[in-house]
Specification:
This protein is α+β, with helices and mostly antiparallel strands. It has five helices and six strands. The strands form two sheets. Strands 2-3-1-4 form a four-stranded antiparallel beta sheet, covered by helices on one side. The longest helix is centred in the first third of the chain and has 66 residues, at 6-71. The chain starts with 5 loop residues before the first helix and ends in a 14-residue tail after the last strand.
Length: 229
């Protein structure tokens, strides 16, 4: 028979009690760790979802911004068909066009003028068939539209009428065009619309403020130019 000292008995009891408490603490820590792991997993999933949603929203915002930029009317026009031999300054060419359109009060209503080199007709060595265009940024859409409507109301402008000093044989009868400057995507759509309209029997297709219009008859109505003197 083993006799245990009461002091040792108390010590063993204390140790066993401590072991039980330690086991409970370890179990509690395991439960807390598992809960924390689940919380971290849920948080990670939420972050990933929010990140994906943010990226999708950013893409939508970028697309919307691009679409709004395309839809927003610009104040640009293009003067096309200018002979390469024309040595006038860009501003002087614009002033000559405006004067011919009887819009002298518009001479200072533009912000910038940029030259656009165009592919020559025929042989690239034939300088009499080379021409360029000017892209003009007007101070407002209304001014741009008034200039274009004045050109449409006047009708055809030939190279000889605008640049009589050049007197280029075979080029004098060529036309000078004044139109709204369109983004490449809108211009491509305009060309497709003209083809489709022609096949469908429509007589007129035109662009205004970035929008494309189709009319069954060829009748045109013009807006009066802004009253500038």
């Amino acid at each position: 028979m083993t006799i245990i000292d009461p002091t040792m008995q108390d010590l063993l009891s204390a140790i066993n009690s401590f072991k039980d408490e330690l086991r409970e603490d370890i179990s509690s820590i395991k439960r807390d760790t598992e809960a924390t792991r689940n919380d971290v997993a849920a948080l990670t999933s939420t972050v990933q979802q929010n990140t994906a949603a943010y990226r999708a929203l950013s893409a939508d915002m970028a697309y919307l911004k691009h679409a709004m930029a395309l839809a927003r009317p610009t104040a640009e026009l293009i003067i096309n068909g200018i002979p390469a031999q024309c040595g006038l300054a860009h501003q002087d060419i614009l002033i000559r066009v405006l004067t011919h359109l009887r819009l002298p009060g518009f001479h200072n209503d533009f912000i910038s003028i940029n030259k656009i080199d165009l592919k020559p007709n025929g042989s690239s060595r034939d300088t009499t068939r080379q021409y360029f265009a000017l892209k003009v940024l007007c101070k407002s859409v209304e001014i741009r539209n008034a200039i274009i409507e004045a050109k449409r109301g006047l009708g055809t402008i030939t190279v000889l009428e605008l640049f009589p000093e050049l007197s280029i044989n075979g080029f004098n009868a060529n036309k000078i065009y004044v139109n709204e400057f369109l983004p490449s995507s809108t211009y491509a759509l305009l060309k497709k619309a003209k083809t489709a309209a022609k096949n469908a029997g429509y007589k007129r297709v035109w662009a205004r403020n970035g929008n494309i219009f189709v009319r069954k008859v060829a009748l045109r109505s013009y807006l009066s130019p802004l009253n500038r003197t």
